[in-house]
Amino acid sequence: MKRHSILIAALLAGTMCQAQTFETKYARPLGDVLNDVAKRFNVKLKFNVDTTGLKLNYADFRVRPYSLEETFDNILKPFDFYALKQNGNLYKIKQYEYPRRQPADGQKLIPYLASKYSDKASWEARRDTLRKEVRERLGIDALLARCSNEKPLVGKTRKYDGYTVQNFCMKTVDGHTVKGSVYTPLAKGKHPLIVCPNGHFLNGRYGKVQQQRLATLARMGAICVDYDLWGWGESEDEVGAKAHQTAEAQQMQALNGIRILDWMIKRKDVDKSRVGVNGGSGGGTQTVLLTALDDRYTAANPVVSLSSWFDGGCPCESGMPIQLSGGGTCNAEIAAMFAPKPMMLVSDGGDWTSTTPELEYPYLQRIYGFYGKTENISNVHLPKERHDFGPNKRNAVYDFFIKTFKLDASKLDESKVTIETEDQLRFYPKTK
Is the pLDDT of residue 11 over 80? Predict the structure, then answer.
C-alpha cells in the first residue's frame, strides 16, 4: 500500500512537471494564479468575473515581484479583465469597461489634450473639429431631420406654493414620444429656462430629490423641465426597460433634450438670454453633451459626472463612440467647448469626480483663460461626500443659478415643495 502511494505521488509530480514546461507554455489555471498573487502581495480579491476553465499561458513568468499593478496587468489583459482597487488591500477583478479608466489615465490624457492648443485660435480649431465629429458619431442630424413637428400635448396645471406643475407628451421620431413635466413660477413676466435631464437616481424624474430641485428653482423664478430617460418611466411603457441599455438610448436622450428646448424656448414667458441645463450623474453626462450639440444654452451645471477618465458606465451615456472624436477626447474636453459661458462643476470625493479640483477644473480654467473669462468656470468640491444628489449638491446648484440667472434667493426653501406621486407626474397614470 505504501509503495502504491509513492507511485501515485511520483506520477502526479511527473504530470505537474510536464505541465510546467515550454512545450505546454507553462500554462496554469487563472484562478490558481490569482490566488497565488493574492498571497504573495498580501491582498484580497473579489471576483466580478468567472475564471472557471480559464488557463493562462506563461503564467508565473508574468509576475513582477516589485509591482502588483504590473502583475495584474500582465495576468489579466489576455482575458480582457482588470483589477480595480477598492478600500484597503481589496481589489475587484472585473471585465474590461471601455468607458471606465483610472485617475492615472486622466492625468496623462488631460496634458496630452492640452498640448494640442496654446491659444484661443488653436483651441477653437480643435473645438470646431470636435463639435462636427461628435454630431456625426452620434448620428443626431439624421434623427432631427425626421422629427415630428406636431405640438406637444399638455395636461392640467397643478398649483402649489409659488409654482405650478404640468405634464406633457411630445412626439419625436419614428412614432416615439417623450414625456415629462414643466415646473413654472407663479410670478408673471419673463423667466429663465433650465432643462433638467435626470440621471439614474432612485425613481428617476419621479423621485423626491428631482422634484425638490426643480420645484425650488421654479419657486425662485426659473421655468424647469425634466423628462424620462429612454426606457425609464413612461418611456419604458413604450420601448421596454432593455432599451435603456443600448446605444439608441444615448441618441434618443440627446434628441429629446434638443426637441424639448425647441418647444420650450418659444414660450412667451421664457427669457432666451437665460437658458440653462443641469443634471446629476447620467443627467450630468447629458448636460455636457447637450451643451456640445446646442448653442442656445447660456449656462451649464453638470453635477457628480464630469471626468477625464470616465465616460459614463451606461450605454445611454457612452453607447455611441463620441469619445473617439478628434482622434480621442473625453467629457472634460467636450465640456470645454462651452467656454466662455458660465459653467459650474459639482464634484465629490467618492466617485470619478474625485480628481476634479486638481485635474479637470484647472484644465477648464486654462480654456476659459483663452477668453479672459476664468471667472465663468467654477467648482464646488465636497471631498467627504459620495455619489448622490444630496442637499449640499442641490444647494450648490441653487447658488449657481441664483448668481447666474438672478433668481430670488429669498424663495429658497425646499420645505415648501409638494412631493407628488409618480401617477401625478405621468402623462398617462398607471392607476385611475
Answer: no
Q: H/E element holding 164?
A: strand 163-171
Do 387 and 348 meet the contact criterion of CB atoms below 8 Å apart? yes
pLDDT digits (tens, 9 = 90+) for 29-48: 999 999 999 999 999 999 99
d(CA 33, CA 304): 37
Nearest to 58 by CA among 88, 3, 93, 21: 21
CB 183 within 8 A of CB 191: no
Four-CA torsion 349, 81, 285, 150, nearest 10 degrees = -150
Instruction: Characterize 159-177 residue by residue with b for buried, 16 or more Cβ atoms within 10 angstroms of its Cβ, and e for exposed.
Output: ebebbebebbbbbbbeebb
The strands making up 90-95's β-sheet, listed across from edge to edge, are 44-47, 90-95, 81-85
What stretches of 33-161 adopt beta strand conformation (E)?
44-47, 55-56, 81-85, 90-95, 153-154, 158-159
Q: Which residues contact 189 (CB under 8 A, 6 or more apart)?
A: 269
Q: Beta strands of 172-309 (E only): which ranges?
A: 177-185, 191-195, 223-227, 270-280, 299-303
Residue 345's DSSP bridge partners are 379
Q: What's the residue count for the chain? A: 432
Entry pTM:
0.90
CA distance 301 to 397: 7
User: Taking 50 as the threshold, does the pLDDT of residue 241 lie above it?
Assistant: yes
Residue 364's closest CA among 331, 386, 389, 394? Answer: 331
